[in-house]
Amino acid sequence: MGRKPFPRNARCPCGSGDKYKRCCFTKGFHYYVDEASGEVVRSVPVNSEARSVLEPALAKQREKFIATFGREPGPDDPIFFDLDEDALRKDTVKAMSAAGIRPALIYAHEKTGLLVSTENRHLIPNVGLREWDEAVAEYYELHPDEDPDVD
């Protein structure tokens, strides 16, 4: 499959409306265009710490996939094919609550699927950050008595 880099001066594929070179490109996301289909694919870099955690989990998932389907996973197959997404969402919210995460941030996570922190904010596409910030603001509109910025 041949891929070419996404044009830097084109509008970012994340949907922010910004030029790619001023949006996701600066965050380390690289988009490529499949030469055969024209499909835009995002590549996300993984640091060595995350890679050391992910590689064994991915190897285990590959083994489970082969045992279940009798073949190697292909490029269009989901990595975590047996994932119960509803249970994962509930478990994540439960863990966030137990950790004392502010309800506004839990609400934003439930609305966007994102987990935004000061440490990872620079890695999230602008459109995702806007959705996150809007969800946090919406929570405080619904619960003004909890807004930390109100005296």
List the helices and strands and how they pair.
Blueprint: E1 3-5, E2 30-34, E3 40-43, H1 48-69, H2 85-98, H3 103-112, H4 126-142
Antiparallel strand pairs: 1-2, 2-3
Helix pairs in contact: 2-3, 3-4
Using the alpha-carbon principal axes, give the shape. Answer: globular
Global mean pLDDT: 90
C-alpha termini separation: 58 Å
Describe the strand arrangement of the main beta sheet, using strand numbers: 1-2-3
Can you characterise this structure?
It is a single chain. This protein is mainly α and 151 residues long. The chain has three domains: 3-43, no CATH class; 47-82, no CATH class; 84-151, no CATH class. The protein is built from four helices and three strands; from the N terminus they run βββαααα. A three-stranded antiparallel beta sheet has the order 1-2-3, with no helix packed on it. It is globular, with a radius of gyration of 19 Å.
Please supply descriptive tags for the structure shown above:
globular, single chain, mainly alpha, 151 residues, three-stranded antiparallel sheet
Short description:
This protein has 151 residues and is mainly alpha-helical. It has helices at residues 48-69, 85-98, 103-112, 126-142, and strands at residues 3-5, 30-34, 40-43. It has 4 helices and 3 strands.
